[in-house]
Amino acid sequence: ALLPEKNREEMQRQLEFTIAYGKGDHGKIYSHLEKLAEEKKADPNILNEIAWDLITNPVFEKKVNLALAEKCATQAAQISKEESPEILDTLARVRFMQGNSEEAIRLQEKALTKATYTTLKEELQVTLDSYKKGILPKISEDTPIESPK
């Protein structure tokens, strides 16, 4: 075997995921992400990353798995007791994409109250304003992240 004995199974899965991702094989990608979400079901940050990637990554644009994104974002919000503005922002976007704009606005407003640094507050406000207009905001790849002071 080419892969080392230690962590072989995990490395094999990562390799399979990378190949599926490169091919755009949504079925295999979603299957991998579902397994990862189950394995990391107690880690709100990883669950949030999975949900955010599902709803913002251009690879998934044509075939978004909103059910998995909702499951991950909801679980992350519950674990974090709805205290993380980033997680609330993700869940709000999922709700908006599901057509539940009232819930999206409520969650986005809550995220705004939890944010502690300026850049994040500004981004959350822009998103909130967009939801109030009924528009799903574009995601900026080059948004600088300001460190909390």
What does this structure look like?
The protein has one domain: Alpha Horseshoe (Serine Threonine Protein Phosphatase 5, Tetratricopeptide repeat), CATH 1.25.40. It contains seven helices and no strands. It starts with 7 loop residues before the first helix and ends in a 17-residue tail after the last helix. It is globular. Residues 142-149 have low confidence and may be disordered. The chain is an all-alpha fold.
Brief write-up:
The chain is mainly α. The chain has 7 helices and no strands.
Throw out a few tags for this protein.
149 residues, mainly alpha, Serine Threonine Protein Phosphatase 5, Tetratricopeptide repeat, 7 helices, 66% helix, globular
Q: Radius of gyration from the CA trace?
A: 17 Å
Q: Kindly state the number of beta strands.
A: 0
CATH topology descriptor: Serine Threonine Protein Phosphatase 5, Tetratricopeptide repeat
| Mean pLDDT rating | 88
Write the layout of secondary structure elements.
Blueprint: H1 8-23, H2 26-39, H3 44-56, H4 66-79, H5 85-97, H6 101-114, H7 118-132
Helix pairs in contact: 1-2, 3-4, 3-5, 4-5, 5-6, 6-7
